[in-house]
Amino acid sequence: MASISSRRLAKELSEVKSEGCPIGINLIKADDFETWWFTIEVMGESLYKSEVYTLQFRFDAQYPISAPAVTFVVKDGRQSPIHPHVYSNGHICASILGNEWSPVLSVIAVCLTLQSMLASCKKKELPVDNDRYVRTAPDNPKKVCAHQCRILLAHNIC
Amino acid sequence: MSMLFNYVSEPNSNLLCCICRMPFIEPATTRSCAHTFCRTCIVQALGHAPQCPVDRSPLSVDDLQPANPIIRSLVDELIVECIHRPSGCPHTCQRQILTTHVADACPYSPVSCPKGECDQTLVRKDAQSHKCPHTLVPCDLCGAQIQFADLQTHISECDNTTVTCESCAAELSRLDLASHECPAALVPCTQASNGCAWTGPRTALSMHLISCPYEAIHRFFALNDSKFDTIAQDNLLLRHKVDTLQGIIQSMKHELQSVKAALGPWYRPDGVYAYTGPASDLPPDLQPSNASTSRRFSLGDAPPPPHASHDMFAAYFPSETTDTSSFEPAPRFDHASQDMFAAYFPSEPTSLETAARRRTLPAFRPGEPFAGPPAQQHMVAPVNLSATLEGAFAGVRDSVVALATAVDSLGRRADIALANETLRLNDEVMSLRVNVHGLRMQVHTIMMDRNAQVTGRSAEIASDGAWPLHGRLYHTSAPGQSITKL
């Protein structure tokens, strides 16, 4: 039900605008209820200190029942962070974006999760199968995320 | 699908569904973890993943129960705006009664045409003033009640619509146009039906009528017309009579054909009959009718040649009469023999005569003096085919009478001959009997003489001759008897 999806997003957007984003997260584009852009920055001491990345949310009509498709933007000079769970094409391997998505989560909650994921990183390195994944990955990360997570689990990385 | 409500004031955050972030609609609470959601939201989420969206504990639809009535009342009593606020409805009410407002009262709710005659959907507040195509509206010109959809068509052909006369350009209503006698209109002459070719404006008609030659004699036309009508009626009557008569002629013609076919060679179309021979012996009561039928065709005492009288009716009887009938008074047997009655009335007199002789001759021996064919046999005349039918019948009758007479005399002669023959035979028998008696007596004498010659042995001879078999049997089979004899 597209109307429920858009009402929910309108509600989230109004909250973001009225209450503001958490520290280190800024809304830079939300022209419609399909694609939103945020900048994300890890505050405090971390490997990614003073590095600003851009997150893209894409919503379908099933939101919030189904998860949004979340990726780092890797075009127009923007880079994805070097992280064991972030592929060089911007795709993110995170359980809450796949199997463990819950309708009670929100856009801001996803941003906070990813912020903490970056903050907790011990070593900046690419995922072990980055080259193979980037060659074959589709545009929408949701279609492969669960499969990739299983691969990463097999490598004891996830 | 539940309505999407707009709440007047910001609802308490405790009443928000954490899936849709709106106040609960039909709230449902999980039994296992006591979380509350909209029923629609949680059912959808469970279809995606069978766990509680909040704490991820396993969950199914069966674990849901209606939320506490207090929660239900709290969300149902939230003040919401009418869903037709974008259209202009300022109404606000409790959420639970908004449905009733929209269905029954909201002036901006869509309703169908109240007259139920068109498919149009309109807003309730406009429904009363709505002019649907079936609404009856009065025509401004004539006041008739016309359906709104037909109004434009009606106005263009309304009787009170102002139209322009084509001839004089006068403005008048359509109703008056029919009775409008335009002076400029082109009209034909009043005598146009009688042949006047004049056509001109109505004003010039009176001038024309003064000089119109047809108008001057219009009384004659009326008189003439009535006469023609009478003649036409008479004509019709006569035509009917002619048709009837033609039908009668046809039937008579058919009857005549059949009569001709029945009469065969005795039919004479010219009425010329040769009363010859036995026909003159007819009883007088038969002759007048025959004569009258013949005179019907003869047209007077001096009859015209047969061909002429025949030609008079040739047009009516064009069929085979000209082929089969001969107008020659002389009889023609070869012609008649080809007719259908030839089998019954053989035309050759010699064949008839020999046939009669063949029938009568075998009763007599050729040499008998009284067995010759009687002279009356020659009187059996052939059937006279040139005579009338009655004449032929009379001839046949005479022949039959002569034949009967001949048969009668023949029978008498036969009787006499038979009696004579019987007497003669009797004499023969008597003489033969006498002869036989004489012979018997001679045989008797011879036998007596032979008996006298063999006297003494007469008994043995008689026994031997009369019973030779017994004697031989006696000698062979009875030796005891021979012994006795010895």
UniProtKB/TrEMBL annotation, chain A:
Pfam families hit by this protein: UQ_con
Keywords (A to Z) from UniProt: Ubl conjugation pathway
TM stretches of this protein: none
UBC core domain boundaries: 4-156
InterPro entries in the cross-refs: Ub_conjugating_enzyme, UBC, UBQ-conjugating_enzyme/RWD
Official protein name in the record: Ubiquitin-conjugating enzyme/RWD-like protein
Species: Mycena pura
Lineage: Eukaryota, Fungi, Dikarya, Basidiomycota, Agaricomycotina
Automatic annotation (TrEMBL), chain B:
GO MF, one example: zinc ion binding
Record-linked InterPro entries: Znf_RING, Znf_RING/FYVE/PHD, Znf_RING_CS, Znf_TRAF
Entry superkingdom: Eukaryota
Sorted UniProt keywords: Metal-binding, Zinc, Zinc-finger
Domain RING-type residue range list: 17-56
Keyword Kinase annotated: no
Zinc finger (TRAF-type): 100-152, 153-196
Gene3D superfamilies documented for this protein: Zinc/RING finger domain, C3HC4 (zinc finger)
Feature: compositional bias, Polar residues: 287-296
Region (Disordered), start-end ranges: 278-304
Residue ranges annotated for the TRAF-type domain, each copy included: 100-152, 153-196
Protein name: Uncharacterized protein
Native source species: Mycena pura
